[in-house]
Each structure stands twice: as C-alpha cells, then as structure tokens.
C-alpha cells in the first residue's frame, strides 16, 4: 500500500472486507465503501482498514441528516488554528496531551487552548465521552474528504 501511495504521490486509504466467494461483489462493495470512509493520511497506514475500524463513519455516510449535522459542526471549527488536525492528533494519541502536542509540534498549553476553542465553538468538550463520539467521527469524515 505504501508503494502505491508513493507512486500516486498523494495520501490514500484502502479498505478490506471478507466474505464467501459467492458474495465477492458484496465484499468488494464493502471494501470500496470502507476505503472511502477512511481518513486519507500521510504516511500511509501499513494495513487496509476494516469494517471494525470504520463502522461509525459508514453508518453516518448512510444517514444524510446526521452527516449534514456533522458537516455543519465541522464548519464551526474552520475559524481558528487548524482544529481538525488538532483533534485528529489528540484522538490518535489516545487523548494524551503531551504526545498530541509533540505530534503537532506545539506546547501542551497551545494544545489546551485549541481544545478549549473547540469547546467554545461547538459546545462539546473534546475530552468527554460525548465529545469523543461526535468529534472523532467528524474528524474522520472530514479527513476522508466526505464533504469536498
């Protein structure tokens, strides 16, 4: 997969699905949908994503009112210092502030400022259970290019 991304000279994502040979077309369709729901990252992840990795994003993609609601919320995060990237780093770091700040190459207080800005703009605390459910799905949909 890394060789393909390198040849394409752009971030990419891939999905995989399993099924009986008689249902190969359905498995192919699921794998394509999983790949489309997966955030595009650089460097490329070493393995394709599965249904277990993207089940929330797949469900949201099939629920236009929810997807529209998330997209509207994503627009609220546009003013400010790259809040989507900040949330992505925070969640990929298992909400470890120091590791997320190091990933972003910012001071931990700068990370705190950005997370507080997310709270002020959306009314959702990124560190709460509710915040993780909503904002991590929003980030994944945005980084997958769902709204472009």
Tell me the number of strands.
0
Helix amount: 55-70%
- CATH domain class of the largest domain: Mainly Alpha
Second rung of CATH, namely the architecture of the largest domain: Orthogonal Bundle
CATH topology of the largest domain: Arc Repressor Mutant, subunit A
User: Which regions are unreliable across 5 or more consecutive residues at pLDDT < 50?
Assistant: none
SSE string: HHHHHHHH
Note the beta-strand portion: under 5%
* Total of domains: 2
Largest sheet: none
Question: Strands, helices and their partners?
Answer:
Elements lengths: L1 H7 L15 H14 L13 H11 L2 H13 L6 H10 L4 H8 L3 H15 L6 H15 L5
Helix pairs in contact: 2-3, 4-8, 5-6, 5-8, 6-7
Written description of the protein model:
This protein has helices at residues 2-8, 24-37, 51-61, 64-76, 83-92, 97-104, 108-122, 129-143. By secondary structure, it is mainly α. It folds into two domains: 1-53, no CATH class; 63-148, Arc Repressor Mutant, subunit A (Orthogonal Bundle). Helix 4 (64-76) packs across helix 8 (129-143), helix 5 (83-92) packs across helix 8 and helix 6 crosses helix 7 (108-122). The model has no long low-confidence stretch (mean pLDDT 83). It comes from Streptomyces pseudovenezuelae. Residues 83-130 form the PucR C-terminal helix-turn-helix domain. This is Sugar diacid utilization regulator.
């Amino acid at each position: 997969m890394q060789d393909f991304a390198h040849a394409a000279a752009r971030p990419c994502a891939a999905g995989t699905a399993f099924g009986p040979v008689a249902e190969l077309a359905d498995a192919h369709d699921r794998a394509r949908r999983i790949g489309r729901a997966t955030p595009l990252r650089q460097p490329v992840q070493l393995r394709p994503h599965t249904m277990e990795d993207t089940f929330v994003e797949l469900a949201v993609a099939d629920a236009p009112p929810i997807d529209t609601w998330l997209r509207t919320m994503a627009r609220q995060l546009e003013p400010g210092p790259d809040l989507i990237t900040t949330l992505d780093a925070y969640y990929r770091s298992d909400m470890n502030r120091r590791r997320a700040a190091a990933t972003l190459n910012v001071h931990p207080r700068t990370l705190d400022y950005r997370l507080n800005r997310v709270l002020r703009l959306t009314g959702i605390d990124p560190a709460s259970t509710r915040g993780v459910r909503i904002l991590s799905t929003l980030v994944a949909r945005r980084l997958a290019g769902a709204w472009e």
